[in-house]
């Protein structure tokens, strides 16, 4: 079927298919990059920023606990420790707002609520009373609060934060795994498309080359045979209806026309030869008839001469 399509059309189809495959592969590649970039951006904005904020909250809570103990151990540095604690509380509020602005799934919402409750309890029942004790200079009360409230409430808050961090890490890993799976899927599809496109291009290209070579070889062979032995009965086999196949058909028609002309010339030559033979025979008959007439005339002249001699002799004897 392809052999009946023009070569130009087949080449155009091949180039069009290659261009389409190139555009499709490029489009899928761009889409893959955009999708990967979107997932990495989501991973950063929705998870990594939140994880970093939670980690800073946990670190600052630990620092507050350490500063409270430092204020008890070194009362002369209590004012500085108090200023650091108040600054850390402000930073914790800012970091917590950053975390709350990130995406959260239902599991994270539940864990977040637990952290909020533990943080509130730690701040109101441990940190705030300890700050009041520092401001009042009551170190005994501060020690009591540190031992009775700060340590256990911090441990509860730290455990809640650790659970939330673990959920964040788990969700981050899921997002990364989904991105990797999507990438591998698209890569497989892209490789398959490129492979199929390359295979189809090779098959179509080989089909075009094979068709052209076969038709050209057949046409050249017929020409070489006629040139070598002058055999006008040779014909080029027509394999297709493309430009070369049409050329072979036209060539066969041309040679058939030449052969017909030569057959007519040979037939006319036979007719002329036969007519010439007939004319030659007629000329021979005419020549033979002329010779017979000449001989008859010579015989008649001899007879007339004898008669004349006889008459002369008779005349002489009479006288």
Properties at a glance:
single chain; 319 residues; mainly alpha; Four Helix Bundle (Hemerythrin (Met), subunit A); 0% strand
Any overview of this molecule?
- With 319 residues, this protein is an all-alpha fold.
- It has a domain at 2-207: Aspartate receptor, ligand-binding domain (Four Helix Bundle (Hemerythrin (Met), subunit A)), CATH 1.20.120.30.
- It has five helices and no strands.
- It has helices at 7-73, 78-100, 106-136, 139-229, 243-318.
- Helix 1 (7-73) packs antiparallel against helix 2.
- The radius of gyration is 60 Å and the shape is rod-shaped.
- The relative contact order is 0.09.
At CATH level 2, the architecture of the domain at 2-207 is Up-down Bundle
- Most strands sheet: none
Task: Return Rg in Å.
Answer: 60 Å
Overall shape? rod-shaped
Question: In CATH terms, what is the fold-level topology of the domain at 2-207?
Answer: Four Helix Bundle (Hemerythrin (Met), subunit A)
* Strand/helix succession: HHHHH
Low-confidence stretches: none
CATH top level assignment of the domain at 2-207: Mainly Alpha
What is the CATH homology-level superfamily of the domain at 2-207?
Aspartate receptor, ligand-binding domain
């Amino acid at each position: 079927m392809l052999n009946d399509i023009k070569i130009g059309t087949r080449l155009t189809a091949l180039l069009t298919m290659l261009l389409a495959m190139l555009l499709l592969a490029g489009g899928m590649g761009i889409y893959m990059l955009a999708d990967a970039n979107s997932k990495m951006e989501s991973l950063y904005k929705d998870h990594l920023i939140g994880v970093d904020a939670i980690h800073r909250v946990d670190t600052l809570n630990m620092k507050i606990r350490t500063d409270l103990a430092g204020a008890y151990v070194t009362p002369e540095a209590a004012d500085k420790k108090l200023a650091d604690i108040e600054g850390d509380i402000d930073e914790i509020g800012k970091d917590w707002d950053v975390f709350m602005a990130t995406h959260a799934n239902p599991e994270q919402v539940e864990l977040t609520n637990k952290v909020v409750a533990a943080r509130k309890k730690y701040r109101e029942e441990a940190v705030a009373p300890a700050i009041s004790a520092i401001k009042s200079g009551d170190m005994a009360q501060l020690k009591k609060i540190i031992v009775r409230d700060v340590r256990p409430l911090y441990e509860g808050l730290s455990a809640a934060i650790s659970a939330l961090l673990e959920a964040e890490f788990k969700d981050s890993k899921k997002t990364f795994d989904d991105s990797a799976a999507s990438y591998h899927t698209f890569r497989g599809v892209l490789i398959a498309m490129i492979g199929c496109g390359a295979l189809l291009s090779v098959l179509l290209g080989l089909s075009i080359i094979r068709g052209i070579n076969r038709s050209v070889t057949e046409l050249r062979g017929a020409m070489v045979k006629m040139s070598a032995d002058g055999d006008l009965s040779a014909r080029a086999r027509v394999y297709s209806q493309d430009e070369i196949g049409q050329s072979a058909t036209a060539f066969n028609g041309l040679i058939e026309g030449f052969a017909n002309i030569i057959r007519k010339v040979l037939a006319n030559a036979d007719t002329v030869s036969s007519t010439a033979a007939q004319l030659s025979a007629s000329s021979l008959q005419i020549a033979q008839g002329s010779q017979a007439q000449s001989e008859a005339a010579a015989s008649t002249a001899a007879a007339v001469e004898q008669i004349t001699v006889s008459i002369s002799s008779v005349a002489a004897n009479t006288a």
